[in-house]
């Protein structure tokens, strides 16, 4: 599906949330202001983030606004820094690869 492949092209960042912020992990899409989500684990945040991204792009389409090309305007690399276990990193790498 063409739309699904576009979703995977958008760079994102994932970082842990402080206990005061509810804990878990936050995912943000630098190309799409306000497009964020969270989850208990990095994997949950990424999965929830894909839903948020899809909804964001559909809303743009519904209102007749163009979706920015992935990687603009911030030029983000798509890399994210993690602070978690090696087990979580391996699970994310396996899922992404």
CATH topology: Double Stranded RNA Binding Domain
Tell me the name of the CATH class: Alpha Beta
In order across it, which strands form the biggest sheet? 1-2-3
Q: Could you say what the CATH architecture is?
A: 2-Layer Sandwich
* Relative helix content: 40-55%
Class by helix and strand content? alpha+beta
Major beta sheet, specifics? 3 strands, antiparallel
Order of helices and strands: HEEEHH
Gyration radius, rounded: 14 Å
Mean pLDDT: 82
Can you tell me the overall shape?
globular
Low-confidence stretches are: 1-5
Number of strands: 3
Number of domains: 1
DSSP helical segment count: 3
Distance between the termini: 18 Å
Blueprint of the fold:
Elements: H1 2-9, E1 13-16, E2 25-28, E3 36-39, H2 42-62, H3 86-96
Antiparallel strand pairs: 1-2, 2-3
Descriptive notes:
It is a single chain. The protein contains 3 helices and 3 strands. The two termini are 18 Å apart. The protein is globular. A hairpin with an 8-residue loop joins strand 1 and strand 2. The longest helix is centred in the middle third of the chain and has 21 residues. It has one domain: Double Stranded RNA Binding Domain. It has 97 residues and is an alpha+beta fold. The protein has a 3-stranded antiparallel sheet, with helices on one face. The N terminus is likely disordered.
């Amino acid at each position: 599906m063409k739309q699904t492949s576009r979703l995977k092209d958008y760079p994102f960042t994932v970082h842990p949330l402080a206990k005061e912020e509810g804990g878990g992990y936050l995912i943000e899409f630098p190309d799409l202001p306000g497009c964020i989500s969270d989850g208990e684990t990095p994997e949950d945040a990424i999965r929830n983030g894909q839903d948020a991204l899809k909804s964001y792009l559909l809303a743009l389409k519904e209102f007749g606004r163009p979706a920015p090309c992935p990687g603009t305007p911030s030029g983000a690399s798509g890399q994210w820094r993690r602070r978690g276990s090696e087990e979580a990193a391996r699970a994310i790498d396996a899922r992404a690869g």
